[in-house]
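User: Run a structure prediction on this.
Assistant: Running it now.
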Amino acid sequence: MIAQTALTLLSLFFSAPLSVIPLLDRGQRMDMVDLYEAGQSSQVGNRYGGVSELSVLTDSLLEIRLTEVSSLELRLLPDTTLSIRHTVVTSDSVVHTQIRHFTPTFQVCSNPS
């Protein structure tokens, strides 16, 4: 069973606006978690016609393979800041990573913890 902290992480994951997680709508995110928690393949179709898959879900960490070349990591920090790392590996194997921090209401944090 997932602890209360993860429920907060999940509620943030479910309520994140499409501007923050554009590839997966709320229903796709919920389906992905339901499948993962049921021990099934957590692959779901994404908004661009591809397949995304939840690979890790813990009390404070959620990892998703968004596409064949991109991934998303959400971490709930102790001060309730949500850290989101989006990584893309280009065709020439160059890794691009963007890390953003948000308040629980999805305001961008200017000075993350």
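The chain has one domain: 4-102.
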